[in-house]
């Protein structure tokens, strides 16, 4: 562990009092959650109006347990103090591990959203140029950091790796150096295209010999996962089939709970296929479809009774519509 400030010396001044005083000085150290990390106390006896320093003899050595920012707080306690406003002083300590590189952000050059933020899944062939933002949190410059990218197909059981790439990052400086090499760098990987509309997991991983804090070495993002694994919010249903007031079109309302293969077809009463209305992968949600009254050959259908059949896996339903 490397600490940029080491709170072992504390200067105490009595510029206002005219009497020798005996008082306590308390040292508190807080972590970033404001939890008390370290407490110590020292006493000064019969201090004359002057300046004094509490050095290593009074304060034992303190070593941070983890990296991060700490607050050191000195409090003077004097009975009958006439000016308590100057009794407290605070300084900040930045503690760094010797070697610590982590992934802080995952983006893609195309600007695609990760996870389940998109309404519809990205279609097959969607390109992703993945970028990992890597930061050196340690107290030393690093010259051999590997950044791995693995992409998994979540439709397989178990998940299978379908894309692997590794990049070498050199000359990653530490944050305390004012040299030309930055301590933050973007690592860009080759373009990868989605092979289907299924869900995928994108994993980034840091490889650094002697890394003191491996907890920040991995980061994960997902593609289409909000579509393929979204809980069922609506059931499969063929909700309504209605003809427009001008009798020129028919509106079909239906719902699907998840990304699925869907078939919507129109038959006459003899069972003959008249029109394929929808066929293929379909996103979750409630949808409407308008049919213009033409068959698959582009001809206007005759007046009469027709059947709309919806199928999704083992589920199916039929509704009637009268064309007149």
From TrEMBL:
InterPro entries given in the database record: FlgD/Vpr_Ig-like, Secre_tail
Domain FlgD/Vpr Ig-like: 260-312
This protein's name: T9SS type A sorting domain-containing protein
Source organism: candidate division WOR-3 bacterium
């Amino acid at each position: 562990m490397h600490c940029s400030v080491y709170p072992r010396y504390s200067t105490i001044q009595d510029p206002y009092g005219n009497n020798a005083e005996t008082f306590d000085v308390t040292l508190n150290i807080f972590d970033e959650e404001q939890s008390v990390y370290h407490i110590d106390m020292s006493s000064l006896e019969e201090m004359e109006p002057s300046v004094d320093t509490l050095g290593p003899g009074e304060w034992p050595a303190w070593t941070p347990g983890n990296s991060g920012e700490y607050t050191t707080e000195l409090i003077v306690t004097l009975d009958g103090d006439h000016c308590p406003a100057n009794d407290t002083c605070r300084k900040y300590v930045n503690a760094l591990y010797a070697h610590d590189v982590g992934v802080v952000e995952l983006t893609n050059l195309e600007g695609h959203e990760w996870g389940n933020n998109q309404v519809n899944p990205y279609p097959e062939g969607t390109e992703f140029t993945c970028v990992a933002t890597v930061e050196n949190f340690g107290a030393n410059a690093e010259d051999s950091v590997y950044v791995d990218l693995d992409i998994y197909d979540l439709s397989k059981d178990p998940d299978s790796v379908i894309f692997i790439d590794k990049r070498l990052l050199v000359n990653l400086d530490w944050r305390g150096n004012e040299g030309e090499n930055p301590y933050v760098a973007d690592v860009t990987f080759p373009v990868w295209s989605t092979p289907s509309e299924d869900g995928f997991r994108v994993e980034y991983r840091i490889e650094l010999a002697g890394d003191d804090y491996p907890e920040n070495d991995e980061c994960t993002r997902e593609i289409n996962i909000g579509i393929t694994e979204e809980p069922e919010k609506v059931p499969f249903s063929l909700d309504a089939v209605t003809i427009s007031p001008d009798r020129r079109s028919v509106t079909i309302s239906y719902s699907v709970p998840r990304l699925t293969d869907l078939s919507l077809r129109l038959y006459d009463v003899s069972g003959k296929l008249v029109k394929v209305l929808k066929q293929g992968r379909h996103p979750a949600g409630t949808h409407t479809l308008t049919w213009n009254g033409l068959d698959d050959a582009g001809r206007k259908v005759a007046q009469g009774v027709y059947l709309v059949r919806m199928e999704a896996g083992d589920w199916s339903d039929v509704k009637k519509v009268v064309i007149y």
